[in-house]
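Review form for a predicted model. The reviewer records the input and the model, then writes brief findings.
Reviewer: anonymous (R2)
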Amino acid sequence: MFAREMLNKIKWQDKRLDESVVVSYTHRGAPDNTAHIKGDKITDLKKSFFYNSETGIPYHRITRITYDGKIVFERKGKT
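Model under review:
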């Protein structure tokens, strides 16, 4: 399952895109070039990007998604 599919599943099927969801993504300049956003800060899921109140972030930058403390998505070759 791709990152976009997982976020949509959590949002629409589980109805829990909240603080129990943590999305880690590549962000140059951040510590270890990784930033994290909780699900309740995600404002929209579009075709190629997910959005917070400040910007759009491409799905291909997502390296990990945790849900209730469990890894539900992890890009191969990235930790």
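Findings: The chain has one domain: 3-74.
Further findings: Strands lie at 21-26, 34-38, 44-45, 49-51, 56-58, 62-67, 70-74.
Recommendation: see findings above.
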